[in-house]
Design brief:
The protein contains 1 helix and 5 strands. It is of the alpha+beta class. A 3-stranded antiparallel sheet has the order 3-4-5, with no helix packed on it. A two-stranded antiparallel sheet has the order 1-2.
């Protein structure tokens, strides 16, 4: 879950869209808020387009197509 700095809403997002940081290093200033305001990118699930068994972990995974991304950017979860 991520917390949107402007709206205060929480969203479930794909892990590939996250950037790791230390809480103390996030300086929420006017420049950062302006940058976030210009992004307006929240990815939702467009469709479940497939599935597989991941042999490395012996678990089922779904192939997810994301709103706003190309088909090649679909990912297994």
């Amino acid at each position: 879950m991520v917390h949107h700095l402007l709206s205060g809403k929480e969203y479930e997002v794909h892990g590939s869209r996250l950037k790791f940081f230390e809480d103390s290093s996030l300086n929420v200033n006017e420049e950062l808020v302006e940058h976030v305001a210009n992004q307006e990118l929240v990815l939702g699930v467009a469709a479940i387009v497939g599935h597989r068994i991941n042999p490395a972990i012996a678990k089922k995974e779904l192939l997810v197509a994301w709103n706003g991304l190309e088909a090649i950017e679909s990912s297994h979860l």
